[in-house]
Amino acid sequence: MLKSKTFLKKTRAGGVLKIVREHYLRDDIGCGASGCAECCRTQEGPALEPRPRDPESSLCPQPHYLLPDTNVLLHQIDILEDPIIRNVIVLQTVLQEVRNLSAPVYKRIRDVTSDLSKHFYTFTNEHHRDTYVEQEQGENANDRNDRAIRVAAKWYNEHMKKITADDNHPQVIFITNDIKNKEKAIEEGIPAYTCEEYIKSLTANPELVDRLACLSDEGNEIESQKVIFPEHLPLSKLQQGIKSGVYLQGTFRASRENYLEATVWVHGDDEENREIILQGLRNLNRAVHEDIVAVELLPKSQWVAPSSVVLQDEGQNGDDVEDEEEKENTLKTAINEKMLRPSGRVVGIIKRNWRPFCGMLSKSDIKESRRHLFTPADKRIPRIRIETRQASTLEGQRIIVAIDGWPKNSRYPNGHFVKNLGAVGDKETETEVLLLEHDVPHQPFSRAVLSFLPKMPWSITEEDMKNREDLRHLCICSVDPPKCTDIDDALHCRELENGNLEVGVHIADVSHFIRPGNALDQESAKRGTTVYLCEKRIDMVPELLSSNLCSLRSNVDRLAFSCIWEMNHNAEILKTRFTKSAINSKASLTYAEAQMRIDSATMNDDITTSLRGLNKLAKILKRRRIDAGALILSSPEVRFHVDSETHDPIDLQTKELRETNSMVEEFMLLANVSVAKKIHEEFCEHALLRKHPAPPPSNYEVLVKAAKAKNLDFKTDSAKALADSLDRVESPDFPYLNTLFRILATRCMMQAVYFCSGMDNDFHHYGLASPIYTHFTSPIRRYADIIVHRLLAVAIGADSTYPDLTNKHKLADLCKNLNFRHKMAQYAQRASVAFHTQLFFKNKGIVNEEAYVLFVRKNAIVVLIPKYGLEGTVFFEEKDKPKPRLAYNEEMPSLKVEDTEFHVFDKVKVKVTLDSSNLQHQKIRMSLIEPQIPGVSGPTDSTTLNTDEPEKKRSKLEN
Amino acid sequence: MAGLELLSDQGYRVDGRRAGELRKIQARMGVFAQADGSAYIEQGNTKALAVVYGPHEMRGSRSRALPDRALVNCQYSMATFSTGERKRRPHGDRKACEMGLQLRQTFEAAILTQLYPRSQIDIYVQVLQADGGNYAACVNAATLAVLDAGIPMRDFVCACSAGFVDGTALADLSHVEEAAGGPQVALALLPASGQLALLEMDARLHEDHLQQVLEAASQAARDVHALLDRVVRQHVREAALLLGD
Ligand SMILES: [Zn+2]
Q: Architecture of B25-243 per CATH?
């Protein structure tokens, strides 16, 4: 095996360093066709079919394999993923190039390859004796790789001829969009086509053509040859410019309201020019939201002020720019010297951050046209021009489109159709859209990920019991909301012989099943959290774990990570210990069932006694926590009753809170705090913790002002003072006032975040009034908890460590992703609630409801309808209507509309309707009914609530 | 930039080997006439030279002499040109001392030192080019040199390294693979008895995986043995031919 190899040395000289690497060439690498007599090595894993029958191509009637080059793989991955395309040879050269150029595409191609039905085969050509090529003098790396690909393609064709007796041997077709490369290949006798030629030749599957990415050098006959945009500078020039300070690097953020305006957040600590404003198409210069761009500051004389105009791009296909210039001029009105901001223009793109976008097709007015504009759901994304033959079928559907490029002579970026999600307004479709738009990874778990799941039937083995305590005899039970299938915590409480109490919190031992670094671990880390939508759950870990092996269901043996305290009857902790364990829960209860047991006079079994003990301790713990200054905040949380057949929401219900809810919560908090202390003690540099920063005093202004208006004195200098102030709010004739204050206080809070202890000094958790905190109790649905489990396991010697666990930079990166995923999950959840609210009101028709004013704005009031927990804005100014007299008092704050004044917490009556005038952006509209204001309120009036804005509904503050 | 992929999905390593395969080994015995024994070995791009003097009377302080066996003295050094970056390496730096000590432990376990009480055996090893697995190359070179010197040994001492990537044990790590920072085991084996003369591990490795890595390293060491054995037989045959003339 060793001697059969010849070897060559690749020498790479760079600087003083001379790197010599060995490169072995082999003769035992198979061609991948199953049953090949020449390559006797039996194939395991993905293999090519010996005689692929389909797809039928008019260009190559013979059975054939495809061999794409790097650019085809990079840009046409949408096509390659299509089930029609099978039997593809991916060369190692190509794969390595893709890996260096685009991590997402690399991952996608690996996923496709692992799908055996796709018959993708990776040929290790760089180590094959006959297909290795050496870089020649004067040849650059790209040319060398192109040559290597052609050599491999040629070898394949000859090999296929050799192994097939008859004439009908499979062909290997080289797919490249590089015309020169294609010509060279044909000269060398390799059948070669461009991706477009090949896809168009698939007679049986014409719909595939739409998924082709259209690249700038192909068929741009319709685009005007007039140059609209300034040229982008090459990357090397940009880097030079950034270094010398001529250009600034930043993230491009398009405006939601105005398509001709954007800001660039400059990277770095320079406080002064943090934000640069860009106005006008030419200055935006083809940058798309989230791109990393280089900007040049304009001279002060050309600075502009942020416009307050709402501008939607509504033009048709045309590339006429005069119209735009006119619009740009409208932005420049009302210029006040003081309002001018540093302005600039984009000179080049450092990194594109294009993703597939959801949206809808705006069919071209020209009947026969194949080119249409696509309007993304996200208003910050420009419209995209695509080519499709199925425009009439795609009308009224939510579709996904990817951008391929944006040439300088095109008003819109060019893209291609990727996928049809379904009809607009359809529940499945809308759910898919909101998941995609919030970047929630929700594809089914890949084969590679699933391969790391334990084999069924599963049971606890002796091996598993190593380093593990057997607690199966304990009377442990779980308490959760009804129909909960991912139970990650269970509890027990018993009296010890010395009269003290032993309390245990048992958490699903997810880190036992998810081992560091494997595909399953990577996928969970990427997802970061389970996302709960109104009627759907997007799991972080595969269902086998989340709903079965890791779910601490009753009467089955499960692995757990236990935190066990010895406490006295005054809930003071005497001893804390942690251990991995095996448990057998005796009952899975709902909050209501647990409450019933505690309250029942006749029940005295072990479970009930245990619950009563827990409940008693929890009350003391809670009291103590509140005395220390923990905040009890409120949010109008609403659940939908969903019709079991139509899945339409039929009623709303505010979440009921029982004693048992807070009982479970109390012990989870205690466990989290205990674990946080332990892991920080053990790993002071790389513990994963969670902090909740105190809000800056200015955040509380609105709260203090509102209190003043109600003759209350609010202290906000500490959490404790705030908690006390909130407790003092009481009004016999206005019982809801206290809740309103708590809702308002919630809005003043900062976001709690994960962080790595070695990268931060401030650990304080403001809301819980705890000096240190982490997440340990929900490893099934939060990845942070898995890391915390691993840290704790190492700390107690129950598991081994691995390099990334003790790398604080890796940990900090992980925290960044987790914080992002949590934020996105929250937004997705709100969007889901908003959509279901719309469905609800669609079925319900027009309703009039009581509401309270939460905020007063310059031209509107924000109101909350307690019955639905629904918040909306009542605008007093509208297009095409006479404007009422408005007087805004910032000090109070109050807004006077004609003769009626509105204050925070005023009671009003509003009309709620669904506005479907824009199919893509349906809205709940709220308009004033009471108090009556002539010309403003009344049934003829309509005002809007914009449900797109994520800030509008805050779900409960996560601890 | 994406980091280096140490093991591809198809099971190939960066240089084209499969997980359990060794680099190409070439060796020659008796490269220096003046020394009692000498050998030169190439394991891939790692090249090492070993020279043996002895057994001879104690040099220097006689008080170090052992009454019941021979003293094995090992010195390890790296040539200035052995790595990509030229570096002067003073004799007796910490790393060299440690390596010398390890070699000494290894060979004290293998050489039948009790046959030569109160005498001394010197083993000098120099790495001419370093590309991973320095310790293993030194041990293998020294084994050949000791055999060349005709000093009786219990058995060959064959060494090889092994690492662990993505659940797979890799034998005979190259420099690139070592530099990636994963766990690494260096093992010296007496193949006939299966005894270990030395086992050293860098970085942490879960005990569940230890067996797998050890198994890979041992198998690799046995493969090395087969090769060294062939080199020795070849050398003896050549020597016999010369004598026969
Ligand atoms: Zn073959």
A: 2-Layer Sandwich (3.30)
